[in-house]
């Protein structure tokens, strides 16, 4: 393992406050901080968002765009030390880069996954099947990823089973609420006015004492600064030319979202990583949000 791989992913390679000052003093970036007049959202926006992500995953169907998130056990060691048949729900699984990382590194863990994009689910199914790991325990007759537009809250139905990943028979280890929920670069793709609903759904499927692991784009990340003024669709909220969107979180906004849903804050920090594009000889300042939140006992 290289020294770069062993670096902690939420270590401070640079000071976030100094980055903020530099960016806010730059007149060419001032449009990022101007007030934004809110616009009423279309009733079909969720359908349009799903279509945009379908197109996105179809364009990146080779999987080379995504890498396995092998940092997860370093950042969230609770996954490594969890008990046998602990249940993890990955919200916004994409091509399975989080799920497969967990399954490769931890035996006897049950991973449930959902996504708004049927293209993403198809790709994740292919990758999981080819990896010789399973999404639920061997005693279950499984359908790895089912293409349903089912609310997250339906994971915890009246019988304690799963509505998105189903089995023709349920063993004891697959029944009940989730021990962990992962929101890894997912919430930023949800329109701001629907984020609180999404977080509340995550809260509802966790068992008391369960943990939610959060990682997403932070305020003043380099990707935020690349957006043009006409790509703003809200304050700190942007839409790409392909229709997919991205929001950039401050600690306060992230904290307010999760605490309002009933979570207890365990960890919440900016992850500031400086990387160098050696081919272009360009230094990149990446800012992510790292968070852990717990459902009260």
From TrEMBL:
What EC class does the entry list? transferase
Q: What is its EC number?
A: 2.1.1.-
Q: What is this protein called?
A: tRNA N(3)-methylcytidine methyltransferase
Q: List UniProt keywords, sorted A-Z.
A: Methyltransferase, Transferase
| Pfam family for this entry, one | Methyltransf_23
An example of a GO molecular function for this protein is:
RNA methyltransferase activity
Q: Does the keyword Methyltransferase apply?
A: yes
The record's comment on protein family reads: Belongs to the methyltransferase superfamily. METL family.
**What's this chain's function?**
S-adenosyl-L-methionine-dependent methyltransferase.
- TM stretches of this protein: none
- What's a single GO BP term from this record? methylation
Domain of life of the native organism? Eukaryota
Alphabetized InterPro entries for the sequence: METTL2/6/8-like (IPR026113), SAM-dependent_MTases_sf (IPR029063)
């Amino acid at each position: 393992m290289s020294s770069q791989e062993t670096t902690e992913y939420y270590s401070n390679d640079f000071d976030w406050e100094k980055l903020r000052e530099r960016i806010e003093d730059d007149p060419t970036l001032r449009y990022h901080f101007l007030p934004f007049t809110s616009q009423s959202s279309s009733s079909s926006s969720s359908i349009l968002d799903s279509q945009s992500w379908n197109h996105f995953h179809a364009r990146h169907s080779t999987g080379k765009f995504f890498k396995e998130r092998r940092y997860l056990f370093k950042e969230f060691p609770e996954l490594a030390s969890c008990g046998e048949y602990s249940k993890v729900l990955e919200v916004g699984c994409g091509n399975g880069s989080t799920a497969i990382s967990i399954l490769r590194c931890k035996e006897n863990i049950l991973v449930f996954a959902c996504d708004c994009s049927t293209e993403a689910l198809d790709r994740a199914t292919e990758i999981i099947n080819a990896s010789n790991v399973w999404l639920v325990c061997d005693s279950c007759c499984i359908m790895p990823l089912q293409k349903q537009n089912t609310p997250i809250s339906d994971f915890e139905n009246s019988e304690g089973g799963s509505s998105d990943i189903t089995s023709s028979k349920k063993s004891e280890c697959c029944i009940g609420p989730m021990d962990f929920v992962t929101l890894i670069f997912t919430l930023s793709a949800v329109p701001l006015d629907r984020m609180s609903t999404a977080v509340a759904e995550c809260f509802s499927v966790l068992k008391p004492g369960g943990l939610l692991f959060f990682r997403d784009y932070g305020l003043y990340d380099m990707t935020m600064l690349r957006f043009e003024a006409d790509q703003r669709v809200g304050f700190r909220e942007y839409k790409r030319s392909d229709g997919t969107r991205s929001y950039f979180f401050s600690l306060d906004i992230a904290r307010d979202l999760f605490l309002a849903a009933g979570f207890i804050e365990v960890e919440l920090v900016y992850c500031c990583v400086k990387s160098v594009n050696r081919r272009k000889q360009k230094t990149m300042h990446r800012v992510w949000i790292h968070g852990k939140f717990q459902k009260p006992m």
